[in-house]
Sequence to fold (201 residues):
Amino acid sequence: MSMKVFASEALKGFHTVAAVAPSSVHLAAAMIEPLHVSQASVAVELGAGTGVMTRALLTKLPPEARLIVFEINPHFFNYLKAHFDDPRLVLVNENVENIETELRKRRIDHVDVVLSSLGLALMSETQRRRIFDGLRPFLRPNTVLTQFQYVSSVQFENGRLHRLSLRPLLHRYFTSVHSKIVWRNVPPAYVYTCHPQPRPH
Ligand SMILES: C[S@@+](CC[C@H](N)C(=O)[O-])C[C@H]1O[C@@H](n2cnc3c(N)ncnc32)[C@H](O)[C@@H]1O
Fold:
C-alpha cells in the first residue's frame, strides 16, 4: 500500500518527492546505524514519505524521547498520521525550511540525531542553505546527521545537467563527513554521516 501511495505522489510532484519508491529496509538500516538513536532525547527526521525510516527510528528510540518528523506533502502526512500511533512521535506538516521556528515552538533547544531523506539535489542553493542554517543552532558537538543521495543524482544548473556532490554543502556545517554506498536500494545510494566535530580515531 505504501508503494502505491508513494508512486502516485511521485508522479504528481517528482521535484519534491525526489524518488519513485520508498527506500529499502537496507537503506533505512544504513541511515540509522551511525545514529546513536537509543541514547537520543530529541531525534529529527526530514522528509518521511510513507515512514520507512520513521518506523526504524521508533524501534530504537527510548520511551521518553521525541521524534520530530517534517513532511511537506499532505498525502504523506495524512498517511503517516493514519499509520503511526506513538506518543513519542510529533508529525509536522511544514516545509523543513521553517525548521528553526517549528523546533522553537516546541521548546526544543538541541537535536541529538537528524535523519534526512530530502532530495537536496533537486532544491535550489537558497533552499538548501535555509534548511541547514535553520538546523545549525540545534547542533551540538555529539549530534550526528545522516543524509542519503542516489548515486544517479543530478542537478540542473545553467541549462546543463551536473552531478551534485553533497560534500561541499555538508562540510559547511559539519567538520567530519563520511560516505558509503548502499547497493541494496533502487537506485543505490550514498549514505553521508556527518559530525559537527572531528571524530576521535
Ligand atoms: C526521497 S523522499 C524520501 C521518503 C522516505 N524517507 C523514504 O526514504 O522512503 C523525500 C521526502 O521528503 C519530502 N520533502 C521534500 N521537500 C521537503 C521539504 N522542503 N519539507 C518537508 N518535507 C519535504 C517529500 O515529500 C518526500 O516525502
Notes: The pocket of S-adenosylmethionine is lined by residues 16-19, 22-23, 47-49, 52-53, 70-73, 76, 95-97, 117-119 (CB under 6 Å).
